[in-house]
């Protein structure tokens, strides 16, 4: 006896032809749609594979000379070490007599760029490196820049991830901050016209000279004349006040190039994460790292975000005369163009070479506000300028007020906020230095981590916490000399903590790494300005939420 499906029958069990045909049409359409979707999926996968292969081949071709340069650098370095043991250091073919990188001198690696900015030669920027390693790194940095803004910024971002990469590599990649390309004057004019129309009639004029350039944009100096508007009769009464401004313009096709390479990086990261089942790969969390990097890059190629960051920083420091951020020009901020106040100021590095009594006194006046400003960003505002390098810290003398100075932070396209766990970890580390309780701080870091390998390794959690305790104890012992920048090097402490996190697989948020690198830079600069400045005395009010910059 045959059973008839209710879909094909009416209420009396008699086949319903209308329903039968409706079912056949639906089944045919469903099969057709399924085949179409499957075909579309396969076409999409083939397209992605073709894109990854083509772009990957181009990247590998550009990097292929490193297959010769890298072994050569290793071989020359090995020969130098051998010759040094046999004949002594004076007869070695090495560019410097320094023995390499010392943990106690980590801060000097961050002070030196401020003293020597701009860096004119790679051989002068790093001690203890051979001609072959300098050549290999020179080519690597040039290639990263030529591959496009995403790869250039990737190198700059990797320089901040001391929890993932070795210190020497991070120091080399940090040189990308000083390398820049420029675009044509014609493109700048077209970008301004597209953004503002006939910009000259709106009072905006600019010079053809480029006063600064980065991986994503370049800057021109200009003048903005605002018209005086009479609200009573809704008429414009002629030109008003003029002010000097800086015009930042994105390089051609920046967003297109960035999105192309971010998509390629995401495909590669997903493939590695899914197809290579190694613990170290899982710890790196490549898809999430690429996603975080993508967020940073997309903020860099939308100048409206930098305009908003500047407004927020200005609001946070509105009560301070010692710290300043440029003001975006109202109505002159778009995705591709940002018009802001031009700051007439000197790079802070110019004050580090004056060793006279007056020069040393000026340094002391600058050190306090600089350190307190950064502490306020971290512990009170939780909104940190995360692109601090020599060109972004300026000093302006206050007119008509002798011996008064204002510190100006520029280029605020990248700003970071810590999540509650990382903010608490940072507070715990500062408190641990005072209380000499590094073990408890290390144990809490493991418990708060999103991913960690310590718990799966016998004694791993204890080893990590003991490592934190050893670092903190060492720094606490130094505090007997006084908790000054010259005695207690918190930047070095935090750098060693990041290295410990890398070795034990304790994951931290990328924002935390960026904030710590910014702290390394500012602490090293603060020490060169005033090594007698009491760090913990300056930090405690901010840790308690009551600090002021003045």
List the SSEs and their pairings.
Layout: H1 17-63, H2 66-87, H3 106-116, H4 122-125, H5 131-146, H6 149-159, H7 167-173, H8 185-196, E1 204-213, E2 217-230, E3 235-250, H9 254-275, H10 279-284, H11 286-300, H12 303-316, E4 323-324, E5 328-333, E6 337-341, E7 346-347, H13 357-381, E8 384-385, E9 393-397, E10 405-409, E11 415-416, H14 420-435, H15 438-448, H16 460-478, H17 490-504, H18 510-529, H19 535-543
Helix pairs in contact: 1-9, 2-5, 3-18, 5-6, 6-7, 9-11, 13-18, 13-19, 14-15, 14-16, 15-16, 16-17, 17-18
Structure description:
The chain has 550 residues and is of the alpha+beta class. The protein is 55% helix and 13% strand. The chain is built from 19 helices and 11 strands. Strands 1-2-3-6-5 form a 5-stranded antiparallel β-sheet. A 4-stranded mixed β-sheet has the order 4-10-9-7, with helices on one face. It is globular, with a radius of gyration of 29 Å.
């Amino acid at each position: 006896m045959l059973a008839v499906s209710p879909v094909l029958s009416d209420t009396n069990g008699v086949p319903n032809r209308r329903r039968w045909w409706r079912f056949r049409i639906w089944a045919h359409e469903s099969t057709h749609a399924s085949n179409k979707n499957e075909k579309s999926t396969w076409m999409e996968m083939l397209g992605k594979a073709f894109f990854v292969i083509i772009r990957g081949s181009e990247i590998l071709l550009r990097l292929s000379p490193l297959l010769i340069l890298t072994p050569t650098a290793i071989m020359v370095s090995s020969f130098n070490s051998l010759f040094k043991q046999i004949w002594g250091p004076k007869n070695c073919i090495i560019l410097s007599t320094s023995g390499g990188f010392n943990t106690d001198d980590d801060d000097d690696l961050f002070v030196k760029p401020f003293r020597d900015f701009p860096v004119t030669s790679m051989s002068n920027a790093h001690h203890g490196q051979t001609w072959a390693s300098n050549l290999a790194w020179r080519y690597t940095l040039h290639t990263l820049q030529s591959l496009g803004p995403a790869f250039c910024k990737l190198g700059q971002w990797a320089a901040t991830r001391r929890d993932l990469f070795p210190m020497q590599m991070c120091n080399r990649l940090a040189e990308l901050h000083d390398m820049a390309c420029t675009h044509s004057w014609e493109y700048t004019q077209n970008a301004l016209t597209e953004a503002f129309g006939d910009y000259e009639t709106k009072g905006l004029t600019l010079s053809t000279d480029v006063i600064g350039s980065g991986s994503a944009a370049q800057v021109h100096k200009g003048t903005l004349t605002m018209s005086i508007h009479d609200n009573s009769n809704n008429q414009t009464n002629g030109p008003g006040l003029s002010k000097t401004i800086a015009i930042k313009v994105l390089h051609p096709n920046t967003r297109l190039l960035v999105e192309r390479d971010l998509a390629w990086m995401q495909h590669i990261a997903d493939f590695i994460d899914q197809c290579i089942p190694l613990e170290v790969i899982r710890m790196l969390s490549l898809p999430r790292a690429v996603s975080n990097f993508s967020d940073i890059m997309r903020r860099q190629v939308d100048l409206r975000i930098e305009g908003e960051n500047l407004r927020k920083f200005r609001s946070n420091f509105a009560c301070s005369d010692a710290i300043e951020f440029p003001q975006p020009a109202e109505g002159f901020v778009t995705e591709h163009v940002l018009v802001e106040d031009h700051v007439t100021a000197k790079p802070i590095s110019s004050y580090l070479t004056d060793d006279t009594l007056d020069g040393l006194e000026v340094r002391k006046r600058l050190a306090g506000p600089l350190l307190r400003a950064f502490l306020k960003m971290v512990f009170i505002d939780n909104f940190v300028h995360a692109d601090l390098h020599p060109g972004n810290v300026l000093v302006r003398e206050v007119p008509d007020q002798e011996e008064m100075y204002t510190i100006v932070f520029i280029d605020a396209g990248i700003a970071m906020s810590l999540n509650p766990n990382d903010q608490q970890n940072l507070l715990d580390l500062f408190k641990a230095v005072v209380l000499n309780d590094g073990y408890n701080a290390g144990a809490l870091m493991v418990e708060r981590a999103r991913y960690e390998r310590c718990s799966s390794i016998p004694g791993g959690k204890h080893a990590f916490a003991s490592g934190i305790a050893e670092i903190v104890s060492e720094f606490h012992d130094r505090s007997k000399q006084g908790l000054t920048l010259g005695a207690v090097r918190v930047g070095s402490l935090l750098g060693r903590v990041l290295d410990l996190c890398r070795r034990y697989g304790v994951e931290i948020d990328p924002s935390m790494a960026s904030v710590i690198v910014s702290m390394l830079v500012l602490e090293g600069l603060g020490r060169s300005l005033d090594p007698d400045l009491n760090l913990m005395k300056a930090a405690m009010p901010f840790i308690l939420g009551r600090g002021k910059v003045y």
